[in-house]
Amino acid sequence: MSELDLIPADYAREQLLLRRLRLTMLVLIAIACLVLLARSGLGVLLAAEKQQVSRLQAKKLLWQQSKAKTDEYTNQALAMEKQLVALDELRGRDHLRLFLEALDNAYMEKVWFDELKYYRRENLPRPKDDAAAPVRQTVAPRPPGVEQRVGVTGHALNHVTLAEFMKKLERQSGVGEVSLLDTSPRTYPNALIIDFKLGLLIEPKPRGRP
User: Higher confidence at residue 81 or residue 128?
Assistant: First the structure.
């Protein structure tokens, strides 16, 4: 009889342990769900932050590109403004016509032009010129002014052609000076040409000067 009384007590303890085990499992599952939800929330927040950072970086890149383009356009506008000012100065003093006539008269075959650049340079009287010519006291000194110059960049077939072209330019009435600023050979598959850069002073020559 005593053994029969023990069976309900063991069963009751077993049921109690099972209930506690189920409760523990439920608690663990709830904790796991909370952790999973927390991780998912953090993932969503991190993804949103990454997207925000990406948008900010993209805006910064666009701003930098826009600023670079603006600076480039500004520099180009300033350069064009300087060239227009120089060109207007040439037109006002008839220097442009002198230069175009000189270039047309001196043009030779096998000479090609890449760039014509107008610029101005101050021309101040040098003291040594006055000291070296004391007999010219009655002649008024040349007032300071602005020289009208042209940079000519191009190519020639060879050095002989380039030298002849420079001589023809020097003989023109509207060219006061011709300077060879740079020259270098350039090799092509079937030919060798000469790159050159000339500096021209555009001003009418006095009569009788070759």
Answer: 81
